[in-house]
Amino acid sequence: MQPRNMSMSGAVDLSAVKAAAEAKQKAEQARAQRAAQPGGEAAAAAPLVIDVDEAGFEQQVLQRSTEVPVVIDFWADWCQPCKQLSPILERLAEEYAGKFVLAKIDVDANQMLFQQFGVQGIPAVFAVLAGQALPLFQGAAPEPQVRQVLDQLIAAAEQRFGIVGQPVDPAAAAAAREAGPPAPPVNPALAAAHAALDAGDLGGAIQAYENVLSEEPGDVEAKLGLAQAKLLSRVQGADAESVRKAAAERPGDVQAQLAVADLDLVGGHVEDAFGRLVATVQRTAGEDREAARLRLLELFEVVGAEDPRVSSARSALARVLF
User: Fold this and answer.
1) Residue 278 annotated in active site
2) pLDDT, position 10
3) Least crowded by CB within 10 Å, which of 161, 210, 283, 287?
4) 6, 12, 82, 277: which is the annotated catalytic residue?
5) What is the model's pLDDT at position 9?
6) Strand, coil or helix: 110
7) Which interval of the chain is the signal sequence (predicted)?
8) From the candidates 79, 92, 153, 154, which is the catalytic residue?
9) What is the per-residue pLDDT for 90?
10) CA distance 82 to 62
11) Which regions of the chain are under pLDDT 50?
C-alpha cells in the first residue's frame, strides 16, 4: 500500500483545532506546573513509545498532547506493512528524544478508537496536538518521508501551539517503558479500609469503604471492597445447615433465600447464588422483589462485571424484570 497524505500542508488549519493562543497558554501552564512540582524533571524518564488502549487514551494521549506532539500508530499483529513501519516510528521516537511521543494502538483490541478516528486501513498514522487529532499518512513509508512529516509536525506544534515537548534521555525512556506505567498514588483512606478488611475488622472496613465512597462515589475498588466486607459480615457465624434448612422449608421467605445465596457465593457456587436470586425476583413483588434485586446487584460487584457468569445472570434478571 502506498502512503497517502504525507504532507503536513494545511493540516493544522482544521476547524476543530482550538485557537492557537489558547493552546499555547495551556502548554506554558503545563510546563510551569511540571517545573514547580518537586522532582519535576522526573518526567524526563517517561517512555517515548507507549502502548495505549481505550481506557488510557484520555490521559496518555489527549492530556499529554498539551505538552508534546503525540503521534499515533494504528497497527495490528497480522498487518505486514505495520511490521515495516512501526520499527521506523519507534526508532525515530528514540532519536528525536522527546520532541514527540509515539502512541501505539492495536486496532484489534481497540475497535472504538479505530472507528472514532475514521481509519480506513492500516498502518495509519495520526497526530494529536492540544487535544485535536489530524491525519498524517496511511500505509508503510520509507524513513526519509516519515522524517519529513515528523519535522513538519514538530515545527507546526511549536509555531502554532507553543508545544515543544521536553528533552528526554532515550536510555531512561527505554527503561521507563520496560518498567511499565507508574503505580497510581495510594489513597490513604482506601488503604485503611483494605487493612481493616484483611484484619477481619468487618465493621471497621464497611465504615471505611463507605467513607471513601462518600468522597469518591465512582471508586470501583472501594465498591468492590464494600460489597466483599458486607458479604463476609452477613455470613459470619452463620450455621450453614440451619440456613439452608430454613430456605428449603420457607421458599417464600425472601430473607432466607438471600442468606443461602450469600453462603453459596462465599462457597464458590456462583451460578447457584445468582440463579436463586433471579428466581426469587421472578416470583416476588414490591419490597421483596426489590430486596432480592439489590442483593443480586451487590453480589455482581463481588464477582466482577467482567465475569461471564455475571453477564449471563444480568441477562436472566432483565428477562424476569421486563
Assistant:
1) no
2) 36
3) 287
4) 82
5) 38
6) coil
7) none
8) 79
9) 94
10) 23
11) 1-21, 39-44
Exposed/middle/buried for residue 275 (C-beta within 10 Å: 0-12, 13-18, 19+): middle
C-beta separation of 274 from 262 below 8 A: no
CA distance to 104, 206, 266, per residue, from 222 (Å): 31, 10, 19
Number of C-beta neighbours around residue 119 at 10 A: 19
Angle between helices 220-235 and 254-266 in degrees, nearest 10: 110
- What CA–CA distance (Å, rounded) separates 131 from 26? 11
Concerning whether 292 is annotated as a catalytic residue, the answer is no
Dihedral pair phi/psi, residue 252, rounded to 5°: -85, -5
Say whether 135 sits in a helix, a strand or coil.
strand
Asked if the peptide bond before residue 170 counts as cis, ω within 30 degrees of 0, the response is no
What is the spatial distance between Cα 243 and Cα 221, in angstroms, rounded to a whole number? Answer: 30
Domain 238-322 class?
mainly alpha
Look at the chain and count its residues.
Answer: 322
pTM for the full predicted model: 0.48
**Residue 112: count of CB within 10 angstroms of its CB:** 10
Counting Cα atoms < 13 Å in the Cβ hemisphere of 200 gives 3
Where are the domains positioned within the chain?
20-179, 187-236, 238-322
Grid coordinates representing 210 are 463507605
Q: Do residues 101 and 68 touch, judged by C-beta distance below 8 A?
A: yes
Q: Is 75 in a helix, a strand, or coil? A: strand
- CATH fold of 20-179 reads Glutaredoxin (3.40.30)
Burial of 138 (0-12, 13-18, 19+ CB in 10 A): buried
